[in-house]
Amino acid sequence: MAVDIKKLFNEELPAALQKNAEDAKTIGAKYQMNITGEGEWFIDVSSTGPVCKAGSEPADCTITIAAEDFQKLVENPQANGMQLFFAGKLKVAGNQMLAMKLQKLFSYK
Q: 46 phi and psi, to 5 degrees?
C-alpha cells in the first residue's frame, strides 16, 4: 500500500514524535529528508527536539531519495534500504551511521 509522503511528514511523524518525545531524543541527530517530487523536511530528534517540519535546515545526516524509491524503503526498510543505497538511489550525505537509525524513527506510531 502506497504511503502518502506529505501526510507522513506533515501529520503522522510529528504526532508520533510528540507521543514518543523522550525516546525520540535518544536518536540524537538532525536529519534532512529530500524526497524528489514530494518535498523537503527537517527532522530534529536531538536534545533540542523532537521536531518534524517542512523545509531545509543544516543537519547531521541528509537523505535524498526519489518518491517511488521512498515507497519501497517504507515497505521493507531492511531489505530495500541497502539495495537502494548500493544502487545509488538512496543518497546519504553527512554522518552515514545516522542513516541506520532512521528505522527507529519511522517505527513510532
A: -100, -170
- Quick one: three-class SS letters along the chain? CCCCHHHHHHHHHHHHHHHCHHHHHCCCEEEEEEEECCEEEEEEECCCCCEEEECCCCCCEEEEEEHHHHHHHHHCHHHHHHHHHHCCCEEEEECHHHHCCHHHHHHCC
Summarised one tens digit per residue, pLDDT across range 13-30 is 999 999 999 999 999 999
- Grid coordinates in use for 99? 542513516
Task: Go through the domains of the chain in sequence order and give each one's CATH number.
Answer: 5-107 (3.30.1050.10)
